[in-house]
Amino acid sequence: MAKNCGFSDSLGVGSIVQYVAVLSRLGDGLQELAFVLADNAVYCGYLSAMFDYLDIPNKKYEGTIPVEKRSFCDGGDYDYEIEFCNVSFKYPETEQYVLKNISLKFQVGKRFAIVGMNGSGKTTFVKLLCRLYDPSEGVILLNGIDIRKYAYQEYLSIVAVVFQDFKLFSFSLAQNVAAGTAYDAERVAASLKQVGFGARLMQMPNGIETSLYQDFESGGIEPSGGEAQKIALARAVYKNAPFIILDEPTAALDPLAEAEIYEAFQEIVGGRTAVYISHRLSSCKFCDQILVFHEGKVVQQGTHSELVAQADGKYVELWNAQAQYYV
Ligand code: ADP
């Protein structure tokens, strides 16, 4: 009798189930691979846009002169003076001047406030001070030398700035304060305490090692608006630069936290030159010099009492406009 070589002889039910399962897993694997390849194609598109951006040649002249080391930690005296000489500025590819014929000098160790209506050029002025843009006309001098001639990175080391739209990153608190991976733990903690973050720091499970946000660490904390602003302030304090520039430093703080910061301010700023941009005129009273900006010009400057004495001045107009809200 002929031998039965049929299908049922070579494949038992168990084997068929096993092969079907394997084929189904292979199908799943291939599907997953297709998804990964598709994601890859999309992300490579983003990445190439980023590389194109990073490859844009830097047209800014970066300068070569080293900045004289005069900060306290080097045994120096913070004796840096910045002067704006007839500076005018319009943004690239625009026709309208945003700053016009600004001439002023920042004396070392003094506190300056910049006030004015929205769009009057306050932030642009700070951007020029930080060399994010160069003046269209006129010159900015550091200790008598055009700031464009200083090595760019060295010039940046003398200004610590907190812009309104500062950013915190999904790294540790310490790395956020130090703005780098290497940091001095004691100075980080001291900077946080100085800006009123000490009590919050004590509650943190890992102290300055605590991660911000939960993008990479499930135990990361979500700072509130006020806490984020304090961390950004601590970053400026940590930098220990002779110029500290704060664009709306307390906008996200509640009145008590704001009062706490202002009380500590003399200590925070120490011998540095401080420039505040503030919408709340009441918080500028303690400054040595208030600069009133209007339509890109400095229309008034003086102390609070000098400016309120000029009844028809812009400062009084702004002051009265704000007083309504406080009544
Ligand atoms: P302030 O800080 O006093 O509110 P800004 O310095 O931000 O004023 O803005 C001054 C003027 O410059 C505004 O008219 C604003 O629209 C314009 N401006 C600000 N940034 C840019 C930019 N990147 N490009 C073109 N115009 C800008």
Essential attributes:
327 residues; alpha/beta; Rossmann fold; 2 domains; six-stranded mixed β-sheet; four-stranded antiparallel β-sheet; 11 helices; binds adenosine-5'-diphosphate
Helix content: 25-40%
The CATH topology name of the largest domain reads Rossmann fold
- Structural category is alpha/beta
In total, how many beta strands? 10
Major sheet, described briefly?
6 strands, mixed
How many helices does DSSP assign? 11
The CATH homologous superfamily name of the largest domain equals P-loop containing nucleotide triphosphate hydrolases
**String of helices and strands:** HHEEEHEEHEHHHHEHEEEHH
Q: On the 0-100 scale, what is the average pLDDT?
A: 86
Tally of individual domains: 2
The CA-CA distance between the termini, in Å, is 112 Å
Strand content range: 15-25%
Q: Which of globular, elongated, flat, extended, rod-shaped describes the shape?
A: elongated
Could you name the ranges where pLDDT drops below 50 across 5 or more consecutive residues?
Answer: none
C-alpha Rg (nearest Å): 29 Å
Q: Identify the bound ligands.
A: adenosine-5'-diphosphate
CATH architecture classification of the largest domain = 3-Layer(aba) Sandwich
Strand order of the largest sheet: 6-7-8-3-9-10
CATH class of the largest domain: Alpha Beta
Q: How does this model look, in words?
A:
With 327 residues, the protein is an alpha/beta fold. It folds into 2 domains: 59-66 and 79-158 and 243-327, P-loop containing nucleotide triphosphate hydrolases (Rossmann fold, 3-Layer(aba) Sandwich); 167-240, P-loop containing nucleotide triphosphate hydrolases (Rossmann fold). The protein has helices spanning 7-10, 13-54, 122-129, 152-156, 173-178, 185-194, 198-203, 225-239, 255-269, 304-308, 314-326; strands at residues 82-89, 99-106, 111-116, 137-142, 145-146, 159-162, 243-247, 273-277, 289-294, 297-302. The strands form 2 sheets. Strands 6-7-8-3-9-10 form a 6-stranded mixed beta sheet, with helices on both faces. The protein is elongated. Bound molecules: adenosine-5'-diphosphate. Residues 91, 94, 98, 116, 118-124 line the site of adenosine-5'-diphosphate.
